[in-house]
Structures
1.
Amino acid sequence: MTTKLETLEAALRNALGDHIQELTVALGEITIVVKASNSLAAMRVLRDHADLRFEQLIDLCGVDYSTYGDGAWDGLRFAAVTHLLSIRHNWRLRVRVFAADDELPVVPSLCDIWPAANWFEREAFDLYGMLFEGHRDLRRILTDYGFIGHPFRKDFPVSGYVEMRYDADQKRVIYQPVTIEPRENVPRIIREENYGIK
């Protein structure tokens, strides 16, 4: 008797064929890796193929693998990771698409396939500097428009270089060099045997 996961794996291999670079099954989930150059065709198959019908994009995020596995990672640095849902078949799938260039990470936009990708792609652009080719309105969504850098990259400085505050005299937001001294936070440890028990 085949399990639901085995049925999904067989359907993926049948429908996508050579589009799949890697398929892993772990912790009750399937993750596939697709080349950026083939990703739009593969995503359309995932959405439209009768055996798959991943009609909903649940999430899309950027990932910086530069320090993954304590620096043991030996692959491309940036990936767009998409989580899809098939309501018809009650299946979930993770699709990983690596950007071919670490210096200028570009992957195709999924907005024409799943319009819900719009804000997710803007977030990945803002926080990781990933470009989504074909996105009609790729601009920052969480950081200020004048913000320099991408704060979720592993090489982004932890403290930053400037801080932003509102100046009441100038009646505007101003930027100034960081004035906070670096410090180590030591957590408070409670060692009472019956703490929290009444």
2.
Amino acid sequence: MRAVPDRITERLSDLGNVPVALPVLLLAAAYAARRGNRRGALAAAVAMALVPALVVPLKEWTARPGPLEPWAAGYYPSGHTATAFVAYTGAALLLRPYTGGAEWGWWPVAVALVLTGATATGLVLRGYHWPLDVLASLLMCTPLLLAVGRSCRRTRRSPG
């Protein structure tokens, strides 16, 4: 018997599904673009589009087996973790300028990291991924999110 019930870990891992995470990013990008942050919205959309372009070839190249399915391959890196990280953190970076200034601007990023951490935890506890699969996705997607953050900062500093 597992310490955390399967129904909970399954729901947590589902946070990294494209139909769950992508709409969050698209809504945030639409809101930011409407508020004038088109550069940041475009950067977030490009970052999300790059996730499968980075993850799929690496999965095929490594052909790593999963923890519970050693006969199956393609578990490294975790696509669900990459999707969750880019979608939720990208949305947070886009929404951060509109959340009430410096003293409250941290909460969207904190929520995004909690959602990403919940996804990663669910994937590992459910047995879908090894912890290294999750870590690789986080490290691989960090430069994408740094670019999104830079795009959002440039937009905020511009006049008008």
3.
Amino acid sequence: MRALLVVNPAATTTSARTRDVLIHALASEMKLEAVTTEYRGHARDLGKQAAESDDIDLVVALGGDGTVNEVVNGLLHRGPDPEGLPRLAVVPGGSTNVFARALGVPNDAVEATGAILDALRDKRERTVGLGLAAGTPGTDDESVPDRWFTFCAAFGFAAGVVGRVEQQRERGKKSTHALYVRQVVRQFIEEQHRGQGMITLERPGQKPVTNLVLSVVCNTAPWTYLGNRPVYGSPGASFDTALDIIGLSSLSSASVARYATQLLTSTPDRGLRGRHALALHDLTDFTLHSKAPLPFQLDGDHLGLRTSVTFTGVRRALRVIV
């Protein structure tokens, strides 16, 4: 077996020692090429090269969710082909590692490496569904390139939080859960000045849902983690179905307190609920529009402002080692 290891040296918990241990362990079981990313988008380029190669059977991503997202977009640059593309394995090296943990991969890099090797020996793999975000025809965002995501997308409030965190990281701040909480508070204060919600959800054959102030698209549960605590925004979301969406039509202080409490106490059976909450399950095609440009993010990567995004849930898109 020939494998490509993609290492993001800037990932939060990735170290030279972790990389060396991983390379040694994998190289003992397969023919391994290890490449360290050098620029934004490099992991995508490496995934694309692997997809076009005739002899790479496996791509291992060592990094956070952003690294995984880039590798996935490279592998799927011509679309899904589960049987024809290299398989993906993930070794968590970021601060949250939602995709890996949702797959059941240990959050420790060394333990995850051992689990991957065991899965390869036992020939354990899974074909997962993914989400695809595209520019909406007839809008200013029509020409925006399509982008795959593994676990989550957000349009509006939650994406604004991610954008704020990225700004802080560019200033030298470490990506911690405390940093995210502070940016949530600051984003909430800013949103109070917007007034009425600007987001509209449109689905084929259904009446539009209007005046949303927050929208999150989930491809799996948990939606995210606070330390070791899983947060279930949409408990029914799964790699085996299409996409779920959760939304809020109010960000009043009372509503935020109520729904924040629900998220912090969420379980695999109980997520957001209430008069101002929207929760829809297993959607294949839908579009989110806004009256004004709003922040947009995929898998924790802030992609700027958009007025419209079209989503597609694609079942059985990629094979992963579990």
4.
Amino acid sequence: MSWIATPAIRPFGSVRIFARLAAVSLAAALTSACVGSMPGVGSLGAAPTPAPAPEAPAIEAGKLRVGLILPLTGGGNAAVAANSLKNAADMAVAEFSNSNVALLVKDDRGAPDGARDAAQQALAEGAEVIVGPLFAPSVQAAGQVARQAGKPVIAFSTDAGAASRGVYLLSFMPESEVDRIIEFAASKGKRSIAAMIPNTAYGTVVTAAFQEAAARRGVRVPALDRYNPDRASIEAAAKRIAALGDQADALFVPDGGDGMGLVGAALAANGVTGARMQLLGTGLWDDPRVFAAKGLQGGWFAAPDKAGFNNFAARYRARFGSDPTRIATLAYDAVFLVNALNAKYGAQAFSEATLTNPDGIIGTDGLFRFRQDGVSQRGLAVLQVGAGSASVISPAPRSFTPGA
């Protein structure tokens, strides 16, 4: 079913792109180069042997040229993710009514030098905006080139360090998930929240976000325990958390997949249950392995609402005959946004004031906006783990709080 007839954008002061929205599971990280949750890519298997790049078609005069930079011949699963992102970008062009976008597809090979070359090529061919790259070092390299040319970048890394003025990250940022779940827990009377966090790059990012979110809301942190991703370290950390007694009324554990299976079992074995401490997590919990794990039922976590991704995935399968990667919606929303802003605002479409409008935009995965520092914020739902599934207990907001 097609849901796009015309670009549904309201005048600024209240910019919105209305899609039938949302998200599916946030799984394991793609690579430490992204420094955060890179959902749904790691389990795809080996990348296919890259095919020779097709000859670029001639571009119709008057089209808005958009550079699309992806690791099309990157190693591991990077090429799989890149192909899905490219398909989603093509789909956004096809589904936008009277699209005026021409994509200039460039391969960065999953490396900063490749991203720098790709950005230079795209800009030399007339690109007004860059979409991508995927990995943080490549984003930084392409961003340097684009800034010198006065052109914005809408990239997909989850490493906030890759963002800067003019380089915007349209990603599933761990910081947004942490802030949402701590805000929700505090609103439900949880005033003393301990944390048990994996010793990973993702864990380091989430630790800082947790401490900031807790301080902002006056939440006490009686313990912050880091553990290595092995059974012995997890069991030792669970014992230390259990020893807190009634000092904590909630426990934040931002792990996913198999890791949460070990964590849940270790906590249960030490008497740490939802009745004693409310368990809290991030979008990494949106995973069937977490839903099936012992001791995690009743836990709360923050993630995008599911409906939008499910709708997107059905259209993607109909068009391409395969399932999209979880992050494919990022390319779809970026290209759809570029098309819509160009249609409405012309020469001012990609100014900083337009791109960082505080009212935000509703895309496939729900509400988001870009801050002036380039980091995105998302309006997320809070879900509760049940037996083999999760259900929404606090819907994603449809607008940002003024001044927040």
